[in-house]
Write a structure and sequence with these properties.
mainly alpha; 76% helix
Length: 141
């Protein structure tokens, strides 16, 4: 029985990180094409630049890829479930228990366009499902 696999950890960081970058870029292009933020005042929006995109990617890479990969690499041998389906199941649980309640409380307090909020929620769900599915799949190789 194997223990901690640094090779699998690096492999999952690489492939999940690449997929996150691709999804984030596609989502950026969709947001720009759909013009979801046109109703908001320009002074409250952060201008999207390379610095913004890079810092957002690093934050998401840390919390959506690196931390889950490291935790999964330590416990994947003792977990009763494994594989891509397990990663997808974890993604749905985190989405429903973590992101959705925060978003609902935010839109009750701050007047954001519902179309933009739903667009962002769909983006995070897609990111979580794909990234965690990849992490789960890599650890059954």
């Amino acid at each position: 029985m194997m223990g901690f696999s640094f090779e699998l950890l690096l492999f999952s960081l690489l492939w999940a990180g690449i997929s996150l970058l691709i999804i984030d870029y596609i989502w950026y292009l969709l947001e720009k094409k759909l013009a979801l933020l046109n109703k908001l005042p320009k002074d409250i929006l952060e201008e999207i630049s390379i610095g913004y995109f890079f810092s957002k990617y690093i934050m998401q890479l840390s919390f959506l890829v690196a931390v889950p990969s490291a935790i999964y690499s330590l416990f994947y041998l003792t977990l009763p479930f494994y594989g891509a389906r397990a990663g997808i199941a974890v993604a749905f649980v985190l989405f429903v228990l973590g992101i959705v309640p925060f978003t609902i409380s935010l839109i009750m307090r701050v007047k954001l366009p519902l179309s933009y909020v739903l667009f962002q929620l769909a983006g995070y769900l897609i990111k979580l499902v794909i990234v965690y599915g990849i992490i789960g799949y890599i650890y059954i190789l």
